[in-house]
Design brief:
single chain; 2 strands; elongated; two-stranded antiparallel ribbon; mainly alpha; 4% strand
Length: 242
């Protein structure tokens, strides 16, 4: 999990960083051209202002809608502003990996890894007979659950944290990407949300493992829930809203 997570996050950060650099250069060129064009206007009736939107720095971590929103729109007294034109974004890899970013990796890959770690947390102990042996000692049930939770989350936070550092190191290696204090605060908040997300998946997996009679049954149910919650609901929700 550590190796896969680090490789995926590093490669995703590299591709998105190169794409951001290309879009930022295109934004700078367009802004200069539009400024020069504006200086040539001598009559108010010919005044047309081109508004350029810079790319979002945190799109190197989460693409969101930044790559789909327009970059330039024209405002004049005689026309209603039309849909903004998209410029930049010339990375051919994004035609294949258009939605793979660090957030998607956490949402899909690490959540699946969480299920593989937690599906037999209690059902496996019950099948092996070690749960009954453990319960014969003077130890409460909530301590057993807390111990399972802390051990599992420790195993998950290690690849998440090191993969996160690897991705940030790749991003910081770029001389063009500049992250301010506000961006670093949002990155930290995003890491906390990712931790909370994996914690929720782990606790749900532990609940199914406690209720299932066999580990195989728990794994089947958890994979079914993973498909519904991670794949169907996010994509189907947008379709139903439309």
């Amino acid at each position: 999990g550590l190796i896969v997570c680090s490789l995926l996050i590093a490669s995703s950060a590299y591709v998105l960083t190169k794409d951001y650099e290309h879009r930022l250069r295109a934004y700078s060129i367009a802004r200069k051209e539009h400024a020069e064009k504006l200086k040539e206007v001598k009559v108010y009736s010919q005044l047309k202002v081109d508004i350029d939107r810079p790319p979002e720095p945190l799109s190197v971590i989460c693409r969101g809608m930044d790559g789909q929103l327009g970059s330039t729109t024209t405002i004049s007294h005689e026309d209603v502003p039309t849909e903004a034109i998209v410029h930049g974004g010339g990375n051919p890899l994004l035609n294949v990996f258009s939605t793979v970013d660090i957030v998607i990796i956490v949402q899909m890959v690490l959540s699946l890894l969480t299920i593989l770690i937690a599906y037999d947390t209690l059902s496996g102990e019950r099948e092996g007979g070690t749960l009954a042996l453990m319960m014969s000692n003077p130890i409460s049930r909530h301590r057993i659950v807390i111990g399972k939770y802390l051990g599992g989350m420790g195993s998950l936070l290690l690849p998440l944290f090191l993969g996160w550092l690897t991705g940030l190191a790749v991003i910081q290696a770029s001389p063009i990407v500049e992250l301010g204090l506000a961006e670093w605060g949002r990155i930290g908040l995003l890491f906390l949300i990712a931790t909370l997300y994996l914690s929720t998946v782990f606790l749900l997996s532990a609940l199914v493992s406690a209720k299932a009679s066999r580990s195989a049954t728990a794994l089947v149910w958890l994979l079914f829930l993973w498909v519904v919650v991670v794949l169907i609901i996010p994509n189907g929700g947008a379709y139903l809203a439309g």
